[in-house]
Amino acid sequence: MTSMPASERLGSHLKLAEQALMATKAAVLKPAGVTVAQYSALLHLSENPGISAAALARLCGVTPPTINTILNNLQDRGLIERTPHEWHRNVLETRLTDPGREVMADADARAVRVERALAAEFTDGEREALVGLLGRCVEVLDKERRER
Q1: From CA 99, how far away is CA 15, in angstroms rounded?
Q2: Closest by CA position to 38, among listed 74, 87, 1
Q3: Contact 42, 53 (CB under 8 A)
Q4: Whose CA, among 2, 37, 59, 87, lies 20 to 30 Å from 30?
Q5: pLDDT digits (tens, 9 = 90+) for 93-121
Q6: Quick one: which of 116, 75, 123, 111 has its CA closest to 96?
Q7: Dist CA 45 CA 103 (whole Å)
Q8: How far apart are CA 107 and CA 137, in angstroms?
Q9: What does the mean pLDDT of the chain come to?
Q10: Helix or strand run (H / E) with residue 82
Q11: Beta bridge partners of 82
Q12: For position 78, what pLDDT does the model report?
C-alpha cells in the first residue's frame, strides 16, 4: 500500500473541522460555566427528561464512565437531579433542575450563535449537500468498522 499525504486524507480535514468547532464552542460556553461535554448533556437532558445515564452517554457520544463523571459534576453544582426510576430502582432518572434550565438556556443561546454563524457561510444547497456528505461518511465508516 502506498502512503497518502495528510492533505489528501479526508479524516484529517474532518478532524480539523471538528477541533475548530469544539474549540469555538468551548470558548463561547465558558462564560455560561459549562464545558462542551456538559452542554451536550444538558441539551439532551432538556429534550429527554428522565433519561438514563446509559442512554444519555449514547446520545452524547461518550462512554458510560465519562457521562457519570459529567453528571456527578452537574449534580454537585445543582444543575441536575437523579432519582431512582419508579419500577427499576437500579436505574437513575436524570432531570434538569430550575438552575440547570437557566444554565442550559444561556449555554444554548451561545452555542446556537456558533451554529448559525457556521450555517450562514453556506447556501441552503451547500448545507444540504454537506449534511448528506457527512451522513455518507458516517455510513461508510460504520460499515468499515463492522466488517473488521
Answers
A1: 34
A2: 74
A3: no
A4: 59
A5: 899 999 999 999 999 999 999 999 999 99
A6: 75
A7: 12
A8: 29
A9: 93
A10: strand 80-84
A11: 94
A12: 97
CB atoms within 10 A of CB 30: 13
| H-helix or E-strand spanning residue 16 | helix 10-29
pLDDT of residue 148: 84
Half-sphere exposure of 110 (CA within 13 A, CB side): 24
Residue indicated by cell numbers 460555566 = 33
Tell me which DSSP letter residue 86 carries.
Answer: S
Which residues share a beta bridge with 81? Answer: 95
Considering the entire predicted model, what is its pTM? 0.87
Determine the pLDDT at residue 88.
67
Q: Which three three-digit cell numbers place residue 142?
A: 460504520
| Contact by Cβ (8 Å): 67, 57 | yes
Residue 139 has which C-alpha cell?
455510513
- The answer to whether the CB of 134 falls within 8 A of the CB of 17 is no
Cell representation of residue 86: 419508579
Q: Which three cell numbers stand for residue 114?
A: 456558533
For the chain, give percent helix, strand, coil, nearest 5. 70, 5, 20
